[in-house]
Each structure stands twice: as C-alpha cells, then as structure tokens.
Amino acid sequence: QAIFSLSVGMGTLLTYACYIERKTKVIDASTTIIGADTLISMVAVLIIFPLTFLMGGSVSEGALLSLDAIPQPFLQMPFGEIMGGMFFLALFIAAFTSAVSSAELPIRSIEGEFGFPRQKAVNYVLFGLVILGFVVLLSYSPMNLSLLGMPLFDLMDHVFGSLLAPLGALVLCIALGHFWKTEQMLGVLMIENKHVEKLFVFLVRILIPVILAGLFLYGIFGEAIPA
C-alpha cells in the first residue's frame, strides 16, 4: 500500500524534494499525507471489497479487479451508467496523476545528465511511455502478448511492483540508516525530540528494512509457499 499509494522506493519522493522549500518540516507534511492517504484507502476497501464479494468476484484478480468485478454493481443500480462513468473517470485521473509523478523522475534525470531543455526531456519520456503502454495493452488483446508464461502486463506488475519497488525502498533505507550520518539526516528532517529521534532511527535502520526484505522475498518465493 505504501509503495504504490505514496510512491515509496521509486525515487519519486526524492524528485518532489527538489521542489519544496528547505524550511518545510518533512515529518509534519509526511504525517498529514500518510494519514489522508490511509484514510481514503480504507474507505475504498470498505466499499469495493464488499461489492466484489457480493457480485461473486475475487479480490485475487488484482489489477483487473476494477475492470471485471467493480462495473457489475453499476449495471444494477439506478443511473448506474452515469455513476460508473464518474467512477472510471476518477480512476483515470488518479492513474494519470500517478503516471505524471512517476514520469517526473526520468524527466529530471534527463535534464540533469544530458542538459536537455525540459520540453525536450518531456517529449523523450512521453514517447517512451506511449510505446511501452501500447505494448503492455497487447497483453489482453487478441494477440495475448505474454512472456515467461504470464501476460506481459501481469509480468511487469510483478517485477516492478512485487520485486523492484520493495528492493528500491530497502536499498534507500540501508543507505540512509547506515551510510549517512545520523545527525545530518535528523537535521535535514528537523527532528528535535529525542524520543522521536530514537524511534525514527530504529525504524529506518532495523524495522522497516526487515519488513521490506520480507516483502521482497515473498515476491520471489510467495507463490511457492503452500496456503
């Protein structure tokens, strides 16, 4: 949930950091964003999962859940076509804004590494995303494009979502917790409370890396574990 909703471990947050003022209190902003994101996610779960079970669907459908199970209730309610259209419009906006935030990282990287003007960097990244998007769409077309026995869309979701995202967050935690001076890290984050300092260091150095390592290993061996 944290990896996808908050773009943790993908470099996106580091890109956002380029735009905020140095005096911004990262802990306060993070608490507000995480709290709001979690609240909205829980409300979505309380709505979508019961509807999915009611219609005989399964939450194990993963990425296709919004396309298979969720449209069914809209077909059986008054003005369902309108409500369904509004839902999928909101879903599109959420996905599009997430794509924009993710695209900002390669755009900034191209600007910095090659000295390209922003418009040129945006054009390169947009072209690559369009080509990649069309290729992925072929997974559920009559072509049934697949690789390693999986639809290409599902394979990319597994590799980048279940493997590389937790691994990226794990590497970031290790770099911050063990290779960056604690005093410097806490100074940048403006943490002055001693109890918060100790808790933060414990989380970054020990607890969160252990959890992320577990997620990464589960992404590799999870399907082999008997239910």
Brief description of this entry?
The chain has 227 residues and is an all-alpha fold.
Please characterize this protein's 3D structure:
The chain has helices at residues 2-5, 12-17, 26-54, 65-68, 71-75, 80-114, 118-137, 152-178, 182-189, 194-221; strands spanning 146-147, 150-151. The protein is an all-alpha fold. A two-stranded antiparallel sheet has the order 1-2. The chain is globular and about 60 Å long. It starts with a helix and ends in a 6-residue tail after the last helix. 7% of the residues are buried.
Keywords:
single chain
**Uncertain runs with pLDDT below 50, 5 residues or more?**
none
Radius of gyration, in angstroms, nearest whole number: 21 Å
**Overall pLDDT level:** 81
Hey, roughly how much beta strand do the residues contain? Answer: under 5%
The number of E-state strands comes to 2
**H/E element string?**
HHHHHHHEEHHH
State the helical fraction.
over 70%
The number of helical segments is 10
Main sheet: strand order: 1-2
Q: For the report, how would you describe the main beta sheet? A: 2 strands, antiparallel
**N→C terminal distance:** 22 Å
- Give the class from helix and strand content and strand pairing: mainly alpha
| Large-scale geometry | globular
